[in-house]
Amino acid sequence: MTTGTSAPGRDELLRDLLGILGDLTSDWDTEFSGTIGADTRLIADLAFESIDVVQLIVAIEERYRRRDLPFEELLMVDGRYVEEIRVGELVEFLHRRLGAKPTIAGPAGAEVR
Question: What is residue 90's three-state secondary structure?
């Protein structure tokens, strides 16, 4: 895990996510028999349900000690929830966002950077 001021690279993010996903799904009974990788789909391949996505987000927030990541950018398009997320899309989202300065809630919910 990377801490400090530098954002983790894509390879490190992928390794971290594969570890998190492995932990989350290790005791699941799914029909997915392949190896989890960048092209793996969370819903179609790993049989994720909405609560699983929430658990994944919490695990990511804990791993990187960031609770300000705007996951709605990944999960929603034009005000609607996306139907699928690939591991690689999650890597790209995290690569962009973990390099951004943390946001702190200011007065009346205003964001302070």
Answer: helix
